[in-house]
Amino acid sequence: MKISTRLILHLTVVVSAVLIAASLLLLKQRERSLRTAAEGEVRAHAVTLQIALEENYAANHVLDAQRLINRLRENAGIYSVLLFNLSGSVELASHPDIPEEIRYLKEARQVIATGKEVEIKRRIGSEDVFSIIMPLKVNAQPVGALEIAQSISFVQTEIARMRGEIVLIALLLCATIFLVVSVVTNYSLTRPIQGLLGGAAAMGRGELSHRVAVPRGGGELALLASNFNRMADSLAKQRREAEREAEERLALERKLRHSERLAAVGHLAAGVAHEIGAPLQVIDGRAKQLINHAETPAEPHQRNLTIIRNQSERIAKIVRNLLNLSRTYDLRRRPVNLPKLLNETIELIQPNADRDGIKVEKQYNGLRQINADTSLLQQVFLNIFTNAIQAMPQGGLIRVEGSETRRDEHAFATIRIADTGVGIPPEHLPNIFDPFFTTKEVGHGTGLGLAVSTRIVEEHGGWIEAGNNDNGGATFTVFLPIPDSEKNEVK
């Protein structure tokens, strides 16, 4: 239910309740006033008749009593008049068909005996009748009593008429209040609130140019509308500033990316030049020797050709690695038993490890089967094992651990390969996966192995993390996703 509707209903109900209460109070007061007036009129007639009759009795004009009673009967408001003798019997009556219910003989004798008037209220048929009995005395001696009865039903009739008028006035007043309050609330409350609601909805849709009308005449709603418009102005200004800052940030990012691309291209070009330049120099030198010493014996001649061929193969290998780094891999996925694949890879590097006095330990804690390209994945592990062996020329330990890790509610096979070599300098950690970045001596590495490896793992949906051990050496951790449907563990 709308606020305006609730307000109208509450106000109408409250006003109606107050009006009804006031009307009931007014009716009660009016009823008491009318009853008091009617009883006062009866009492006035009774006192007047009492005085007249006592004078007649004193002058011994008893016959004039009937004339007085008859004259009083002509008053339409008088219901009946009775005259009691000293014994309490009815001596005269205004008319013979007075009901027995109002012939108060007992009360009349009491009045004659005590000299005190008595008032009696009684309903006869459909009428309320008020009676007053007063004593008659001559020279302080009782001579009888008189009774005057008057209908006061007109009081209820008047009250019923007033009640009808009050009900009609109350209905008209409630209808007027309802209409007036409806118009006022619609103009002063409903429209401003609807405007504010529309403004809030427009703000929610992002229409920051929307403004609400400020009600005339001031007040809280006008202040609220003004504050709303000021808030919209502030939000619009902030949006413009945010858009400008976003455009500036985007332009800066474009420049930064362009600079990064240029730097990457420069770094790549420098790496390529460095890696290819050395074998080219060797090839050039050996070729010059062959040209300048054509009569050289066969053995040195053959050795120079062999060196040229080896350096050519080195250049070809660098070019292949570059192609592997840039091309999109056509993964040939199939179920892979990771412990078996790791064991096969360890067998490949075992002769080199034995030669350098390196021991290999392995521990697989329930690795699950994954879907991967076996040959590419073996290339990743082979690169990491080779780097570990080259980092321990004086011997050491390679520890291979396999387990399962959950990241963002997904399961990953985790292969951790740690060595006890010299480790990775902290300043080099952010760059070890960059192409042509290497800490090895010239001729011992191209700096493409880890770059190619991380690219292969990313193609499988995983990643590689690198770091140093607390007790020395480096650790490479490979994360590979486990299919949700795969539940079997591989021992």
Task: Give the tags.
491 residues; disordered C terminus; Heat Shock Protein 90; 9 helices; Beta-Lactamase; alpha+beta; Helix Hairpins
Could you please describe the fold and organization of this structure?
This protein has helices at residues 3-58, 64-73, 105-114, 153-204, 220-292, 298-326, 338-355, 374-390, 449-459, and strands at residues 78-84, 90-93, 118-124, 127-138, 141-151, 334-336, 358-364, 370-372, 396-407, 410-419, 463-468, 474-481. With 491 residues, it is of the alpha+beta class. The protein folds into 3 domains: 3-159, Beta-Lactamase (2-Layer Sandwich); 209-327, Signal transduction histidine kinase, dimerisation/phosphotransfer (DHp) domain (Helix Hairpins), CATH 1.10.287; 331-481, 2-Layer Sandwich (Heat Shock Protein 90), CATH 3.30.565.10. The longest helix has 73 residues, at 220-292. The protein is rod-shaped, with a radius of gyration of 61 Å. Mean pLDDT is 80; it is low at 486-491.
